[in-house]
Amino acid sequence: MAMSVLTAFNPDASIASILTGGAKTVDRAIVNGQSAAQVSSANNIQALFRSRLDAAQAALNDPINNAVTGALLREQTLLVGRQERISNSTAVISKTLIQIEFIKSNVRYLADQLDELEAGNISASAAATLFNNTLRTINIAVDAAQINFKDGGFTQSKNLIKSLSRETFITDFLQAAYNSDGDSVFVEGQFLGSDYFITETGGSGSVFFSDISFRNSETDTGNLVEYSSFPDTIVTTNAETGLDLTDFTSDSSITFDTTNRTGITGSITRGGLGLLDAFLYDRFDNATDIDRAQTDLESAESIVLTAEADFKRDLAALNSRSTVFGSLIAGIERDIQSQIAEIEDEREANLRAAEMEFAIAQFEFGILAASGNALITSIMLSQDFQASTFKQNTATGEALVSRLVNVQA
Fold this sequence. Notes:
Shape: elongated
Mean pLDDT: 76
Strand order of the largest sheet: 8-7-6-5-11-10-9
Structural class: alpha+beta
Number of strands: 11
Radius of gyration: 49 Å
Number of helices: 8
Helix content: 55-70%
């Protein structure tokens, strides 16, 4: 097929002339070969701009890494951490306030039962049983105030109304961030359970701890345990049914009997609400002991109400600080987004500029190449006409044929 086309244009054309673009002399072959140089130059321009375009695109897609943005992100992370600690603290206090409601209602329930006792509606023994069981319920409510949370990757437990020591009745505390300068809000715990111990003031000097208000169920039997050294050395264990109060002058002067001993004198150290087991109110056997229990209940309710007010104040303070931190974090977030937008705009502009420069370079090169092609063709035509005024432009024709053959191939 190629030969038929070739013959149609010029039967004297040779394969050599076709391969050289119709050029039969060295100078014309070199001039006509300028198309290969154009292609090579075009490829070089494309490779140069492609690397620039790839770099600009990569910069646009890369994560933002800017000094100002990095500083804002670090500050935001710090504030978020502090706000999280405030949130943890508010969760602890909120749970505490919920449990305080249960404690408060149980204290009032005990006061009502003593009123019922005085009115003759219940017996002293029934009142004593209710009293001990309600103290157990109060201590369960105290235990339920515990809350677990993550802080710095570690799990922590907090209970602001439970005693950490049966000897000192100390409680846990909270220290929450107050501002971005590192100041803190200190939230002090307060034991709101029922506990006490008796220190013997004569004889062996033993110390007695009760588990009557810490029983697992109402049906369990509580005990008053005598220690020579608490909590390591137990001397005797005395069931609550064998306990008997013989004299109660004041907390610092009581006399009682146990299953194993009689006439024990000692002093009471109270913790939490300051309430005692029913046997230390002589199981409400007389008006004097009932009045003493009622006085203790009034004091216990006052303790609960005071603690509730304190915790509510602390919660309000922390909530206000959480709002402040939230505003600061939101402000930094807006600053970060603004910085990122500026950086992305700049990188987007760099990419578009590279694309535009590439397009312009391609356009200009195309114009130059077209101009060069026209000039070369003119030179070749001129040479052909100078070679023979009466002959056809055989060289130029062969060059055109070679292009056609190349296309058809």
